[in-house]
Structures are given as C-alpha cells and as structure tokens.
Specification:
The chain has 27 helices and 27 strands. By secondary structure, it is of the alpha/beta class. Among the domains are: 205 residues, 3-Layer(aba) Sandwich (Rossmann fold), CATH 3.40.50; 173 residues, Dimethylsulfoxide Reductase, domain 2 (3-Layer(aba) Sandwich), CATH 3.40.228; 121 residues, Beta Barrel (Barwin-like endoglucanases). The strands form seven sheets. A seven-stranded mixed beta sheet has the order 5-4-17-16-15-6-7, covered by helices on one side. The chain has a six-stranded mixed beta barrel with strand order 22-26-23-25-24-27. A four-stranded parallel beta sheet has the order 11-10-9-13, with helices on both faces. α4 packs across α19 and α9 packs parallel to α14. The protein is globular and about 70 Å long.
C-alpha cells in the first residue's frame, strides 16, 4: 500500500496491522460510581489517539458523554504530576522540590506514626475526594492504621438521600422506569448529570406515560419531557411534598391497603400535613395551587408511579434531609414503594455503593477493624454517625479551630479538594494549623499546593480496576497504557505505605489481588475468570434479579419493620439534638428569626453547584475541549433582574454576602426564576463555596446549604464586554 494511503488510514484512526493502531477496552471512571461507561481506547505507539464508547457494553452500549469523550485530553493534561514532591515554600504558594518515592514514603511514615504515638491515631484524618474506585481498600487502610476518621466527599454527596431512604423505608429504592406509568422527576437533571437516564424517560413517554418535573430552573428535562413543571422556590421541596400529601389525604386518594398494613406513624404524619393546605403550600413554594393539586392527583391516581428525588440537589439545604424524607413519604402514601413500576428497593451493596444482584464481601472487607469513636462530626451529627461508617468532614473546620473533642494534627488525602468546603478561605486557615498534610493526585491542583508531600497518581487508563453493573455484570480491567512519568495507582501507593507504616493487616500486606479475591467470595466469580475475560465484562452465575414485593413480605429494615412516616431512628435524638421523627418543614435560610431583614439586604437566592453537562465538580475545568463550552466562569441570572441592575450579557459581576465575594461573568436567562441565581462550582477563578457559610449545615445530615444562600450582585466598574 502506498505510504500516502497508509498515512490517510492513520489520520482516520483505522485500526489494523497496516496502521499499527490497536483497540483495547476499559471503562470511564470520571463520574463513578453511578456510571462506569465502557470505552474503546484506540492506541498507537503506546499512546491514546481516540476513544469511543464500547458497543454492546451492558451499561452504556457505545454511548459516551462529553466528559468521557474528552478522556484523552484529561489523561494527557500538561499539569499532570510527574514525581513525588516536598513543599519548600509556604502552604498554598506551590513551591516544591522533587524527591524519590523512597524519601516520600519514609517521611510520610515518620510523620504519621509520630502523630499516632504522641496524640493517638484519631488525630490523623484520612480523606478522599474523587475518585471512588479505591475506597474499600482505603477505608480498611485507615481503620488498620487505627484512625476512626476516614471521611470522603460522601459528606456532601449522595449520603443524605441514602439516610432519608433508610430512615423511612429501610433501603434505597430506585425508580422503575421500565414499568411505570408516571415519573415524578424531583430535581431530575437527566441530560446534565446522568446522560443515560433520559432513555428510560423517553421510553415512558413513548408508551403514553406522564412526566412531572420539580425544579427551580427550566432544564432540558423540563423542555423535553415535562407534562407538568412545578417551578418551586429553592429549598421549599419539603413544603411542596407535604402540600401534595395534604391534597392526597383530603381527597381520599391514599392507598389504604398499603398504609394500613405496611406503614408506621401515619396518623401523626396525617395530622402534621394538615398544616400544608393548598394556599399555604403555594405561598411557601411559589407554585400555583392548581398545579400542586394536579401533580398530587396525577401521582396518586396513576398506578404505578415512581419518583426520582436527587440525593444531592434536594439535600443541599439546611432543611434538605427532611425535605428529602417528605418526598419519599409520597411513595408510602400512594403505595408505590416496592412495587413494579414504583420505587423498587435494591439488593444489598455489591461493590462501591452499587448493587449488581450478586453477593460480595466488599462491605465486610472495608469496615474490618473500625476503631472506637469519637469520630469527627459524631457528637454534632449523631444521626449521620449512626447511619454511616465514616466521619462527617463538614465538621472538620470546627474541630480544627477548637481542638474539641481532641486535636487533629495530620491529614492524608487521596484527591484533596478544598473547594468542596463551605467558606473555603476559613477552611484553609483552619487547615494551616495541621502539622502535616499529604495529597495524592493526578494534577498540581490548588489543593495540592497546601500539602507537605504530594504524590503523583495515575488515571483509570493506567491501572487495574474492578467494577460491577446492574444485571449481574462485573468487569476487571488492566492498564491500556503504561503509567505516565513516575505515577502509581492509588492502591499501589496504599500497599506500599502499609509496609512503610508497619501496618499489620493480613490482606493489605498481600496486595490488590489478595484483597479482591477475598471480596469476590460468594460472587460466583474468580479473579482468574475476570482476568481471562481480557478487560471485557462477564456475568455472575449467582445473579438473582430482585422480585418487587419481596422486601415488603419479609419486613423492612426499620425498627418497626414497616415504612416509617415517623422515623424511630430519628426519634432517639429528639431530646438531645431536637431532631423530628416526622418529615417536618423549616425555612431554608439560616436567619429564621428575622428572614425579611436578611432578604432585603441580600435579595438573591444563590444556588452553588448547579449542573452543567461538560464538567463534574472541579474536574474538567482545565481540559481544553470541555472548557471551550464555557471558557469563563458564569453565573446564570434572571434576565429581568439583571437588566434592572443595568447588567448585560457577559458583563463582569461581583456576587457578595457576609461570607465572601467572587467575580465572574453574567449569563442572562429566563431559565432561572426572578430573585434567583445559579453558578457551577469548582472554578479556581470563581469558587462558589466562598459564598457558603461553614456553619450553614443541616442538623440531621451535616450537609452544607450549597443551594440556598442569600446574596446580591452588581456590575463591576469597567466590567463590560
């Protein structure tokens, strides 16, 4: 073949002997654990030249989102960490010297063991941001070191929703879109945050089903799917759910067979929801009462119906946990819990938060040897402490500042992310008091600049990894490219440190294969079988699909064995922490004694962390392809509000409140309601968490109020385009 033709084939990225291009399979770990999309990686001379979705993969069947499609640029970013580093300048300045792995391990071992010997193992905090793939190994590592203070981004992510489900029905129950007739998409992002989920909603619409969307913004899900859009005020979700419950009960649309036989606390709950008559619910939420009535009627009278309460979006308010429970209670009220087409409780966790329909020993493995309390956040947030096997890291700022109940002296982090902490500048000041900080990351982030030792980690394309998928699938992948520079995988670093720290753990001392072999017990799969599959997913012979109704027959994982409108778990903390067993509603803003005065001074309700489709938290802001969609940080503001302030599209504006100030560009839109503003988080140039009060936390879950902050904004002088 002529050289010119060969070059054309290479430019077209056609695999084969002629071009030297090969294709290997792996999966994407960008938005773990919910999505682990199969990826075909096109390689030439040991480098990634293209990625595509894997056709026939049991999870994504060839589809990738914008982030997955930008994986090559993510892996080859110019700011990849290349060698271990030791800080030589002030924290945050970013001045480091290169050191060897041996030097890094020796210093880490000396400093962490020194803190342990002098102050106790609990004075070392083990933190993880993204990713999640190594968490069973890391949690066991922290516990085997002797520290109870393992914590993660779950302190602000999905766990509040999990807690809401557990305290109500005992298990997480997901919407059964394949068999439903109505979908209530509460804070449903769809195209923004779960690119495969719209397929199920499309299928429902094609069958003639109905869709109700509850969201303060007009999103693509609203435009494409909604038969009814309830555009409520931010943070008033609980009032809306209780208002719907009021209408359902007053009109006798209750599923009495379910309520009478399978629920606890209904009479108390019914008495409470009488307060939320249509006029009251409309006043609190801003939703017209005829729309609330119609939503309640449709949800109660269309059988089966399911709902999607977002575990993060709904929860990011100081009343978020109770709002979430109020939404979940609609399932019990209408008998749509544990039925086909309703919300179906999943099987037990198989691996890393995901149920795949076959057993594993991953939870038993990760929690082995958990030390005794007190844990960070345990006293302040006892409900969190009871329902989670990790610290509530939103209490770190307070404990660092006060040293109560004991001092914290060192932080070891896999993926330290300061930008997830409310009032980030205050958290940095508290962090500066630590004697020693280690950060393990792919990139030289702003957070890494605060560490004393920084270790370079490799991407998912450069390591061995294991995932599970619904339907009984499991996949083990091995590296498709060699680790770049001197980077190592997170687990390799942990296993090396087991030896350096002198940790005595019979499985961690043996390494990755031994640990995974233990966790695979009972799964029907062996490590050899997974390796022989050559990076492709295989199905467990022990897969057993869940049959709706089984859980109800067996009795729920609650103290009463029933669906609890009044949670007995929460009731234990009424006297000590004033937590309510019923899903009570409260004002979503902190200054409840005089909210009107605060609203006059700061009339805009700010949502921090509104989703966009080409970033995830603080990831992908520095990937050229994805950054090109929004080159500068923007705040979405209502068009009429902005024009009244003399602000035009693209003007530089300053957002401010008592906590902080940031500057970014204004994007004028009618998709955000008057009096509200929304910005994506994680930008170095405009960190929205600088406007979130560190004390603005939900007393039930400890979650921060990212999505209900009072602020104002104004045009910066000379800030026009």
């Amino acid at each position: 073949m002529p050289l010119e033709s060969v070059q054309e084939l290479i430019r077209a990225k056609i695999p084969g002997p002629t071009t030297g291009i090969t294709v290997k399979q792996t999966f994407c770990d960008i938005c773990a654990p919910g999505n682990h999309c199969g990826i075909d990686v096109f390689l030439r001379d040991g480098r990634i030249i293209k990625v595509e979705g894997t056709p026939g993969h049991p999870h994504n069947n060839g589809k990738l989102c914008t982030k997955g499609l930008a994986s090559r640029q993510y892996v080859y970013r110019q700011d990849r960490l290349r060698v271990p580093l030791r800080r030589i300048g002030p924290r945050g300045e970013g001045r480091f010297e290169e050191i060897s792995w041996e030097e890094a391990y020796a210093e880490i071992a000396e400093r962490l063991n020194g803190v342990k010997d002098k102050f106790g193992a609990n004075s070392v905090v083990f933190f993880t941001g993204y990713s999640k793939w190594y968490r069973p190994f890391y949690q066991r590592f922290a516990f085997s070191f002797g520290s109870v203070n393992y914590c993660s981004d779950d302190s602000v992510c999905n766990n509040s929703g999990v807690m809401g489900m557990k305290t109500t029905g005992g298990r997480v129950a997901m919407p059964d879109l394949r068999n439903t007739r109505l979908f209530l998409g509460w804070a449903y992002g769809g195209y923004y945050s779960s690119h495969l989920s719209p397929n199920g909603v499309k299928g429902l619409k094609a069958r003639g089903g109905k869709v109700i969307i509850v969201d303060p913004r007009v999103t693509p899900a609203v435009k494409h799917f909604a038969d009814l859009h309830l555009q409520l005020k931010t943070g008033t979700d609980g009032a809306l759910a209780l208002g719907m419950a009021n209408i359902i009960i007053e009109n006798n649309w209750v599923d009495w067979q379910y309520v009478n036989n399978h629920t606890y606390g209904f009479d108390e709950y019914a008495a409470y929801v009488r307060r939320f008559d249509p006029d009251t619910a409309s006043r609190l939420t801003g939703v017209p009462k005829d729309l609330i009535y119609e939503a309640a009627r449709l949800f109660a009278q269309t059988k089966p119906a399911c709902l999607n309460p977002s575990g993060s979006t709904v929860a990011h308010h100081i009343n978020g946990f109770q709002n979430y429970r109020a939404i979940v209670c609609l399932l019990g009220l209408t008998g749509n819990y544990d039925v086909a087409g309703g919300n179906v409780p999943g099987t037990a966790e198989t691996y890393i938060y995901k149920g795949a329909g076959f057993p594993m020993k991953s939870v038993e493995f990760s929690r082995r040897g958990r030390p005794r309390k007190p844990i960070v956040g345990g006293e302040r947030f006892p409900l969190w402490d009871e329902l989670n096997e990790e610290a509530q890291d939103m209490d770190l700022t307070r404990q660092l500042e006060t040293g109560e109940p004991y001092p914290l002296k060192a932080l070891f982090a896999l993926g330290l992310n300061l930008k997830m902490f409310p009032d980030t500048e205050r958290f940095k000041r508290a962090l500066a008091q630590l004697d020693f900080i280690v950060d393990v990351d792919l990139f030289q982030t702003d957070s890494a600049k605060w560490a004393d030792i920084v270790l370079p980690v490799c991407s998912s394309f450069e390591r061995t990894d294991f995932k599970v998928y619904g339907g009984g699938w499991a996949q083990l992948v091995r590296p498709v490219i060699a680790p770049l520079y001197e980077s190592k995988s997170d687990t390799e670093i942990l296993f090396d440190l087991v030896k350096a720290l002198g940790i005595k753990d019979p499985l961690l001392e043996k390494g990755y294969d031994a640990c995974l072999t233990y966790m695979l017990r009972g799964s029907g799969l062996t490590l050899d079988e997974l390796k022989a599959a050559d990076n492709k997913p295989i199905r467990s012979p022990r897969f057993a699909p869940y049959v709706p109704g089984t859980y109800t027959k067996e009795g729920y994982d609650t103290p009463s064995g029933k669906f609890e409108f009044a949670s007995q778990v929460i009731a234990k903390y009424k006297e000590s922490h004033n937590l309510d067993a019923l899903p009570t509603y409260r004002n979503p803003f902190r200054d409840e004694k005089n909210p009107e005065e605060s609203r006059k001074k700061y009339p805009i309700v700010l949502t921090v962390g509104a989703r966009i489709p080409f970033a995830l938290h603080s990831r992908f802001h520095d990937v050229p392809w994805t950054r090109s969609f929004r080159p500068e940080p923007q705040v979405d503001v209502n068009r009429a509000d902005a024009e009244e302030k003399g602000i035009a599209e693209g003007d530089l504006v300053e957002l401010f409140n008592p906590t902080g100030r940031i500057r970014l560009r204004a994007h004028l839109t009618d998709k955000v309601a008057p009096g509200q503003a929304a910005l994506y988080h994680g930008y170095t140039e405009a960190n929205g968490c600088e406007l979130v009060d560190a004390g603005h936390l939900d007393p039930y879950s400890g979650f921060p109020a990212y999505k209900s902050n009072l602020c104002d904004y104004e045009k910066v002088k000379g800030g026009g385009r």
